[in-house]
Design brief:
Elements lengths: L1 H35 L1 H32 L1 H15 L5
Helix pairs in contact: 1-2
């Protein structure tokens, strides 16, 4: 049971957190940009499809690397994530 909770914690914190951060950073940045300089914000808004396409290509590339790496890389990644999340100072 302890290994399953570590898996769920690793999956949730590694994928959901950065996604949520990036969405809020995008909308927050655009809101601030429209307030201070709407022309530059429109240019930034026009670049978003290119950013999304680049992210999609990056995900496809990473997916190919994961297939090559195997389960040992996943276990090592979870171990490092747990070590960082559970680090305690004395």
């Amino acid at each position: 049971m302890a290994s399953e909770t570590a898996l769920i914690n690793g999956a949730a914190s590694e994928s959901l957190g950065p996604y949520t951060e990036s969405v809020f950073a995008l909308f927050g940045g655009l809101a601030i940009g429209f307030y201070f300089c709407w022309q530059e914000s429109l240019v930034t808004l026009a670049c978003i499809p290119f950013i999304i396409a680049g992210q999609y290509l990056g995900f496809q590339f990473q997916e190919g690397l994961v297939e090559v790496g195997g389960d040992s890389d996943k276990e090592a990644n979870l171990l490092i994530g747990d070590a960082i999340n559970n680090f305690k100072t004395v």
